[in-house]
């Protein structure tokens, strides 16, 4: 394991927060790092979704109905079965955020919500 150097000001702020919360500094650091890594994965998935939408016309031509994996804005694998694709992707890339999506006619599925109609009402 490697040590991480933290400047004095940051360390003092961490110690103060830890004391106020009655928690160890290492717990705060681990929590902050987990949140940071989670945010990075969310940002990566957003980029992969954008890439999927750009790639969609070609994907629809060749892979309609299949499951595709998008990593670093590139198609890296595909399969008829989601679970097979998922297993290969996890074996190859570990826990890296990779978009796995079924190629449908439209890049973004249309969602329709039915609501009850109550007619027009006047508000006074």
List its salient traits.
single chain; 124 residues; alpha+beta; three-stranded antiparallel sheet; 52% helix; elongated
Task: Describe the structure in brief.
The chain is α+β, with helices and mostly antiparallel strands. Helices cover 52% and strands 12% of the residues. It has helices at 8-21, 25-63, 82-93, and strands at 67-71, 74-79, 99-102.
What portion of residues belong to β-strands? 5-15%
Q: Spans with pLDDT under 50 lasting ≥5 residues?
A: none
Multimeric state of these chains? single chain
- Return Rg in Å: 23 Å
Query: What's the helix count?
Result: 3
* Biggest sheet, spatial arrangement of strands: 2-1-3
Order of helices and strands: HHEEHE
General shape: elongated
Global structural class: alpha+beta
Mean pLDDT: 91
Major sheet characteristics: 3 strands, antiparallel
User: What's the number of domains?
Assistant: 1
Note the gap between the termini: 68 Å
- Give a count of the beta strands, DSSP E runs of length 2 or more: 3
Helical residue percent band = 40-55%
Folded structure, characterized:
This protein has helices at 8-21, 25-63, 82-93, and strands at 67-71, 74-79, 99-102. By secondary structure, the protein is of the alpha+beta class. It has one domain. A 3-stranded antiparallel β-sheet has the order 2-1-3, sandwiched between helices. α1 packs across α2. The protein is elongated and about 55 Å long. The model has no long low-confidence stretch (mean pLDDT 91).
